[in-house]
Amino acid sequence: MAQYLSQRIEGPIWLEPTDISFLRARISDVETQVEKLQSQISELTHQKDAKLVEIASLENVLSPIRRVPPEIISEIFELACLPEEGKSMYEHSIAQYTSILCAVCVAWRKVAHATPRLWSELCLSLKGRKPVIPELGWVKEWIHRSQGLPLDLYLNFDTRSGISPAISSQFMENILGFSHKIRLLNLEGHISFFIPLFSLPRSSLPQLEEVYLEISSFSSSNDDMYADLTYHEVPSQIETFLGAPKLRCVELIEEDTTPILKKFALPAEQFTSLKITSTIVKPSYFDPDAYTDILRRCKDLVHLRVDLGLDFEPDFVLFSHYLSISLPSLRSLDISALMISGNDVNLLHCLTTPHLEELTLRYNVQDLDALLVDVTSFQHRSSALLSSLTLVGFWPFRETNENLTQTFTALFSLFPAVRSLRMHECAFNMDELLQALTFTKGHPVLLPKLTNFELRAQDDMEEFPSELTPMILSRSLHDETEGVDGLLRLQKVISELPDLVVDFGFLDPI
């Protein structure tokens, strides 16, 4: 037996009955030892796990985040959850970010719940989705956590989402229980969704400062339930915003032939910022009086944008040359220029803005000679000391490069105080214009105060204009510009082509 246990077995084995009994006893004994060891291993494993938990607990106490004051954690949470400036709330899921933070641990959840600013913005978008009927409890809890802070409310409802007006009305009514807290109101969707809001009395929005409306009242053949509500329950003249004493900023996206401005009574006398964008094609019933009436009342307006859009194709003259609108407080104007079939629809020739500082012209196929006439007349009336000029979307329609250069040269000469010139999405050969901007000793200087120049090209532009570098150098080199009366040195240039951005930075070496 000893030889079988100590050597390698290479042949048949002949065992006596006593040998078999011995081996079976030995196996039973070893199995018992294995069970004891397994029991010890299990106990040691439990002890190890307990020690690991203890280590984790101790490390948790030692963690630097535990020694950070709640005020600092609140600031971090705000940076993590709130959207960056300029980013759409509908693209930034603040509800998702706050939910993740609250699920980390009890301590973080308590800090998050005690950070009112996290809950001062409520965004609900049902665009293109088929939602479950919304539970209203979380909305009330969300708003209650904002405590005394004003509420920024973003609602994007869509008929394609499958939500019924009855459900949306119930949802709106619960939110409007907090109407006295609303500071910003951003509404997108069919007008029937917002009937409870538009039925509020005038005094219901005392904190309202900003309004963004992109609402429609038309209905397709599949939207009968919305059409019925639209014509039977929406007030013919909505006066909800008239009792908002703090309302200063309004942006309207026109989607119907009947302007939003005709649906709402607005306190235009207190506006400081107004943006109107039209997405209507061939507006047979478009009413220019809606624009002129409100602008004549906006005496305190500081920022104005009116963009009729490239697809806007009226069959009649919109803004008469006999109109006159004075905006004495206006500092920034962003306006589209458009002429279709000889019909001038440019609002610019109606305006007088003596304190204008920033002008943006968006080119929508207007004849450039007519545009120059309008701008010239506008400047003669206003005598504005413009400091910033932006040209967007200019491209040759009938004009040659030479005519374009002459037009822009004449346009720039109207505003000699301009310090910042931006040209965005301009699809023409700019070399001649850049030559005109190039400083040459002994010749008159175009835009002598220019210190910042920005060129953002169309996607189809393949290379920098060849005259860009000579223009930059002529207006930035110290020995070239020194001693020239009234000429300021170019300090910053940004030039952007598809897939390539060059920031020349501050060119002044001093």
Record keyword descriptors for this entry.
single chain; 510 residues; alpha/beta; 15-stranded mixed sheet; two-stranded parallel sheet; 16 helices; elongated; coiled coil; LRR_dom_sf
SSE arrangement:
Elements: H1 2-6, H2 17-62, H3 70-81, H4 94-102, H5 106-113, E1 121-125, H6 137-145, E2 151-156, H7 165-175, E3 182-190, H8 195-198, E4 210-216, H9 224-233, E5 249-254, H10 260-263, E6 273-278, H11 289-297, E7 303-307, E8 325-326, E9 332-340, E10 343-344, E11 351-352, E12 358-364, H12 368-382, E13 388-392, H13 401-413, E14 420-424, H14 431-437, E15 452-456, H15 468-474, H16 478-481, E16 492-497, E17 500-506
Parallel strand pairs: 1-2, 2-3, 3-4, 4-5, 5-6, 6-7, 7-9, 8-11, 9-12, 12-13, 13-14, 14-15, 15-16
Antiparallel strand pairs: 9-10, 16-17
Helix pairs in contact: 12-13, 13-14
